[in-house]
Specification:
This protein has 214 residues and is mostly helical. It has 2 domains: 76 residues; 117 residues, no CATH class. The protein is 58% helix and 0% strand. It is globular and about 55 Å long.
């Protein structure tokens, strides 16, 4: 059954049932964090695609249960000098080992946020991912210092980190002066504006990042 959540399937009759999702909820605590995050990403996409109200309800229960488990695991992280052994999978990145670019983009890549012609996802999917990055519990799959930088869901710290992660990505592409990056730059800037309009205006007060090359 979890194979259905690991891969988006083309026809709705192959989607899981509400009962099977309830059974899987009972097994969430036994699963690895990275595996849960993959299932949550795919469940969100599946929820966008289906028109069945019963399945949307079951998927929402499944996602909420994973969110609660992520919050529990995040609170269990130790900050007294110990750390969880790192996972070896690296979602995306530039091919370097432990590079700054991977850590800067780590959470975005983990949530499968991607821009550009070649590997990018559609605007509705990107906006859904950005909502989850701001509003949801994040998977505690990175070192504690990195996780602390993101703060709690729905906070000014979370929005600041998200905005100041995306803006430099656009700037880095602009510095390459390569027209093949134009679509990716435009999507970064469009998403940054969407975050500004959706979450920042009228709620928070800090300097909003710019993608201009001064």
């Amino acid at each position: 059954m979890m194979a259905l959540l690991q891969h988006l399937l083309p026809v709705e009759r192959e989607y899981p049932t509400v009962d099977s999702l309830r059974r899987q909820i009972g097994k969430i605590a036994e699963r690895e964090t990275a595996s849960l995050q993959t299932s949550r990403n795919n469940a969100h996409l599946m929820r966008l695609k289906t028109t069945r109200s019963d399945l949307r309800f079951g998927i929402a229960m499944f996602i909420a249960a994973i969110d609660r488990e992520f919050e529990r695991r995040a609170h269990d992280l130790s900050y007294d000098g110990r750390f969880r052994w790192p996972e070896t999978d690296a979602p995306g990145g530039d091919g370097s080992v432990g590079g700054v670019q991977f850590m800067d983009e780590g959470m975005l890549l983990r949530m499968e946020y991607r821009v550009g012609v070649r590997n990018g996802v559609s605007t509705p999917v990107r906006r859904q991912i950005l909502r989850r990055l701001f509003e949801d519990a994040l998977p505690p799959v990175f070192p504690p210092d990195y996780m602390r930088k993101w703060g709690d869901k729905g906070t000014v710290q979370r929005l600041r980190t998200l905005a100041y992660t995306i803006a430099p990505l656009a700037k880095n592409l602009k510095r390459k002066h390569d027209s093949r990056n134009d679509v990716a730059i435009g999507e970064y800037e469009s998403d940054l504006q969407w975050l500004y309009d959706t979450y920042y205006v009228g709620r928070f007060h800090f300097d909003w990042p710019s993608t201009r090359l001064d």
